[in-house]
Amino acid sequence: MDFTWQGEYFETEFEFGTLKISGKEAHGFRPFQLMVSSIAVCSASVLRQVMEKQRMQVDSLTVTADVTRDEEAANRISAIALHYVIKGSGLAEKKVEKAVSLAAKNCPMARTVEGAVDLTETFEITE
After folding, report:
1. Strand pairing partners for 84?
2. Which of 50, 81, 91, 107 lies in the 20 to 30 Å Cα band around 42?
3. Nearest to 28 by CA among 16, 40, 18
4. Cα 40 to Cα 100: distance, rounded to the nearest angstrom
C-alpha cells in the first residue's frame, strides 16, 4: 500500500476506490476511526460466519463500538466495547454466547490489538 500526502490528508487507492485519511474529519477518515471500524466489522463478520456455520439464522446484525481513549498516553485507544444486536429466528442465548466467544478468538483484527486494547463484547437477541 502506498499513501501520498495531498496537503490536508493522505490518499491511497484500492480496488474499491480512493481512501482519504486525515487527523481532521473535514478532510478524511481519522486513523482511530479506521482502526475501530476494522475491529468492529471484522468481529461482526466472523460472528455472522460462525453463527451461520452453527445453523443459526441471522436476519440482521448491528455492532456498536464504544471507544475509550487515553488522553494522557497520546490519546491512544485503550478500550473498545462491542455490542451486537442480532435479529433472527430460533436464536438460543447460550449458543449465541458460545458463538461470540468463538468469533473473538478468530478475528484477525481483534487478535492484532490483543494485550494492547481492552476489547469486550456483549450482545442482545431480537426476533
Report:
1. 63, 123
2. 91
3. 18
4. 13
Strands 118-126 and 76-89, sheet pairing: parallel
pLDDT in tens, 55-67: 999 999 999 999 9
DSSP for 68-91, please give it: EEEGGGTTEEEEEEEEEEEEEES-
Burial class (CB in 10 A: 0-12, 13-18, 19+), 88: middle
**pTM for this one?**
0.91
Sorted by where each begins, the domain ranges of the chain are 38-126
Q: Which CATH superfamily is domain 38-126 in?
A: K homology (KH) domain (3.30.300.20)
What is the average pLDDT value for the chain, to the nearest integer? 95
CA distance to 19, 35, 37, 76, 77, per residue, from 10 (Å): 8, 16, 18, 20, 21
Beta carbons of 43 and 81 less than 8 angstroms apart:
no
Confidence of residue 4 (pLDDT cuts 50, 70, 90): very high
Which cell numbers hold the place of 14? Answer: 484500492
